[in-house]
Amino acid sequence: MFEIKLYQPADAEVWNTFVEQSKNGTFLFDRRYMDYHADRFHDHSLLFYAGQRLLAILPAHIVGDTLCSHRGLTYGGLVMSKELTMVQTMNLFRELNDYLRTLGIRRVEYKCIPSIYHRLSAEEDLYAIFHECRARIVVRDYATNICMNAGLRWERVRRRGVTRAKNSGITIERSDDYRAFWQVLSDNLQQKYSVKPVHSLAEIELLHSRFPEQIVLYQAVKERQVVGGIVLYVTPQVVHAQYSSATPEGKKCGAIDLLYDQIIHHDYSHYPYFDFGRSTENPDGSGLNEQLVFQKEGFGGRAICYDTYQWEV
Description:
The protein is α+β, with helices and mostly antiparallel strands. It has helices spanning about 10-20, 30-35, 85-100, 125-130, 155-165, 180-195, 200-210, 250-255, 255-265, 290-300; strands at about 5, 45-50, 55-60, 60-65, 65-70, 80, 105-110, 135-145, 170-175, 215-220, 225-235, 240-245, 275-280, 300-310. The strands form two sheets. It has a ten-stranded mixed β-sheet. A four-stranded antiparallel β-sheet has the order 1-2-3-6, sandwiched between helices.
């Protein structure tokens, strides 16, 4: 029997400590990250206690009559204690559904945490929502990741890009100054897709100040000008490329290839996985960007799916 508690700001320290000690949580679930855009969501995050023990938390918010794994996050789902058992997880979802019915919630939209982000195996939730909730996949998105110890060789076009960048005098540096790269990124997104970055410059600077070792900027510089950059989200298992962009000059000179060479082969080579992120253009995961996939596969990346499930309460 679980006590299901609605998250309150006073729970922030307990929540954040649990995320840090969980078997599948990352800093994206830390309230200092989640709450930077709290004004955009009707938060309804939950804590699950068995007696005095906190065994799981669920980052979530409500849209109409639907409880959603937080739409402001790349992935979501149940963040679990190492002590949470399979049987307890089955009971947890049964009791969650009972709780939601009392609130008039009719359905759940559930984004699971991809397995590469787990510090320990943590797919009890997937078994439970299938058999206890009769969940079905409603979104299957495609992303590309590298298993770092697999040693897949880079394609020739990517290796040539590294050589071309070095011969062009491009250097790679880690920086805390996001302004110049944000202009490169914004110009690129506006020109190609008529969109802005998910985070404004002020937001990414705020988040970097809160997580200086988890949110990291690498820049490619030529003649004192930023010609490319990559923003990394660093979690215990995975280094994720949150943003990647280059100027026309940077693209011509292979700046992105040299950036990834420094990150993957040198600075973060000891991490289990590198995640390039998604290469799709539509909310349901369709619209595969084949050119982007080709580039990522050229670095040795292969597929992983980001799934969203739904069930009726």
